Amino acid sequence: MSLSNEVDRALLAIDRRSNHLSSEQMRHHEEVLSIFIAAEDEEDDPFVTDDDNDEDYVPVDDEEVSDIENELGVEEELPENEEMYEVEWDEVIEPEHSVSNLTSGVNRLLGEKEQCYECKIDNMFWKKEPPAPRARHWNRFTSISTRPVGPAHRFLPNPVSIFPDIMSPHRRNGNVIISIEQRDIETVFEWKKLDYGFPTEEDRQEALNNGKFVPNNGFPIGMAPHRQSQNDTRVFVTIPRFQTGIPYTLATVNDTEDGPVLYPYPSYEWHTAQGSNCDNITSVFRVALTECNQMVVLDTGMVGFTQNCPPQLLVFDLNTDTLVRRYHHWLWCMILLQAAPARTFKCTLYADVSYHGLVIYDSEQNTAWRAENKFMYPNPDYGTHTIAGENFTLMDGIFGLATDQRQLYFHPLASNSEYAVPLNVLNNRTNWANNSGAMEDEFRSLGQRSSECAAETMDSQNNLYCVTFNPIQLTMWNTNTTFNATNVLEVPADPSLIEFVSDMKVFKNDAGIEELWMISIRFQKFFLGTLNSSEVNYRILRRPLDDIQNLN
Fold first, then answer.
1. Half-sphere exposure (CA, 13 Å, Cβ side) for 265?
2. What mean pLDDT, rounded, does the chain reach?
3. Among 183, 455, 527, 545, which residue's CB has the most CB atoms within a 10 Å radius?
4. pTM of the predicted structure, to 2 decimals
5. What is the largest CA-CA distance in the chain?
6. What pLDDT band is residue 550 in, cutting at 50, 70 and 90?
7. How would you write 283-323 as a 3-class SS string?
8. For the chain, which domains are there?
């Protein structure tokens, strides 16, 4: 039986109780239903499969309509503005034919002023042939109601009732999370090009004259929000010295009338040597904040491709903005990207993307060691990346790190796989004393995502977040479930805002709500030389996570 036949059955059911409806109500209900069958007038009918056989359709008689009413629980006297009827559909599946045209159809029907709810169903796909109704045993269903929305539109259908599984709060549809009010990702700061501030105008002019400041040079990689006090959050940004002409490499962001401006942290003097004094800061890739109000800083010691200083780990007390620890080790002479410190700050993990390993630093023993595994290597099949229609090749190994304090979750940049290893295995130095490639059986491959991604992070509910490259999607996976296409869910987000998210952090705001903070940098354009300084290229973004966490 085709979908239109099922709709006909519903229309007859409505007709049987038309004495309870005004003509305006009937007209709107019938017009809404007509959207579902409009596609059958097209040559390529998205609602009917080759297996549908309309010849088998038998007109519905009055006795059958009564049976339908009984199944749907129709009351003899229906109070005004209550739910009118329900028609069951089979569950949503992926894909063959999109019905995104329903969005525009419903919106046209309701009119611009009458859209009391957004109707977003662009990612929905419907099975072709619904089964016969089963009394009150709903999987997916459509219902139309006459919820009042104002004097002038009293009997307009409510889109939330038309598409309950799409519009209801905290529903999971296929692999997409959709809420009644889709939360927009907030742009905290954005730049077309970075705006460097200086202590004085003389400092700025001197840096320009000696080539230590080239206005168009530098792009951000890392980011971390820090709550200084009630209602006072400062944001740290890292600008690695991939090239000369970058006046400082670790900064805070000041919001001004002219836009966000960077200022050196902890002071300008820490950055002026630019590799000529290894007691200063040379080139910072990542920062991570501990629960002890300290900031761990990864300084590679490189300017461009020159290793000016040994890599170092710096720890600053954020209460006083003073250095409390420094650790040098040539074990880190390669590029270091992501920091994922344990809450106790006993052990800190750093990824070496170029030579495919982890560095584990023990703050109690003030020592470090290295762990390697085949899963940290790039996959050549995923070494060419596509972001927003632009292709570039980058064979980086282990990149994204996240932890639930039991496992380390990680993935190479050039890979679509996610891996895990117990933290107690990594944190035990004796496991790696004689062989950095030991403990092979402790590493697990969890599964594959739809595409490569860069940074990842985890919230307190063990939800792992990552932004894939192609398609550009913010995804979430709860580590208590199997890593597969069903459980890796898409969090609705504007793709243009999240092109190459190079760093992610979970941050608890003043209200105690965890937020996802991200920095997106359009790295594909920097890599290909197509960066346009007249466009917004760098964004710091945030999104509250309480609605997602309530799904668990």
1. 29
2. 75
3. 455
4. 0.69
5. 92
6. confident
7. CEEEEEECCCCEEEEEECCEECCEECCCCEEEEEECCCCEE
8. 3-178 (no CATH), 192-333 (2.120.10.30), 351-552 (2.120.10.30)
